[in-house]
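Workshop exercise sheet. Pairs work together: one partner reads the sequence aloud, the other fills in the structure field after running the prediction. Swap roles for the next sheet.
Pair: D.N. / O.F.
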Amino acid sequence: MNITLQSAKMIGAGLATIGLTGVGAGIGIVFGSLVLAFARNPALKQQLFGYTILGFALTEAIALFALMMAFLILFT
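Structure field:
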C-alpha cells in the first residue's frame, strides 16, 4: 500500500473521531440536566429518567456513527 494513501487514511480516521468530543460533552449535559431536574422536582423521577435514557441513546448513536466512519476509512 502506498505510504501516502495510508497516511491519508490515518488522518481521515482521526478527523472522523473529532465528533466524539461533542458526544462526551453531550452526555455530560444530559446527565447533568437530569441531576438538576431531579433536585428541583423529585416526584418526576421516572419520567425524567425515561427522557434521560432517550437523550443518552440519541447522543450515543452519534458516537457510534463517528466510530463507524473512522473504521470504514481505515479498513476499506
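Discussion prompt: The first helix runs from residue 3 to 16. What would you look at next?
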